[in-house]
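Limitations
The structure tokens in this dataset are predictions for the assembled complex, not deposited experimental models. Users should treat interface geometry with appropriate caution, especially where small molecules or nucleic acid strands are included. An illustrative entry is reproduced here so readers can see what is and is not provided.
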Amino acid sequence: GAGVSQSPSNKVTEKGKDVELRCDPISGHTALYWYRQSLGQGLEFLIYFQGNSAPDKSGLPSDRFSAERTGGSVSTLTIQRTQQEDSAVYLCASSFPSSLVGGYTFGSGTRLTVV
Amino acid sequence: AQKVTQAQTEISVVEKEDVTLDCVYETRDTTYYLFWYKQPPSGELVFLIRRNSFDEQNEISGRYSWNFQKSTSSFNFTITASQVVDSAVYFCALSEAGTDKLIFGTGTRLQVFP
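Predicted assembly:
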């Protein structure tokens, strides 16, 4: 597609359940990023992929969070045993590697609500 | 450590007013990049501009202009003759050379009233 696609757009889950968030980057973009935006906050970096490897996962808040990328394309962010503080909008972005010439292209995000 | 500060949490103006959004950054690197993004109510972040640390020329794009001053570590954004469609949250961000990670400020919510 023309843009970064994220699914689902909204997810409500019960505390303690696992959730999977999906990101389809722009075709040809080898770099992929996950950010989290909590209410009234800025964007918090979670993890960065270059191809299928993650050279920087320093932003993952706990071991309940993990992400993978397959085929240099689709990425899945998994949150296990969700907690209420995990409620946020999870944004995915992609770009050409190390160029940042045009900045990232962001998806519309997945709004996660943990009840 | 890298840090981006957007001290203005919210700004309200009336249409056709000029408005400046402030951004102050901290970095130890001499080579870095600065960005502005717009997040309209729809939620999707829109890239506005990227500047590298060696280019201090001010930039103008239509009603938008950016003032980069290394001496004060600031990268301010001015909207001239604001319009209702400019209402959004605006984020300033920093990236150091050699990393692809953007460090964002907390954003400034701009409301333009007709």
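Some entries come with short summary sentences. For this one: The longest strand of chain B covers residues 88-96.
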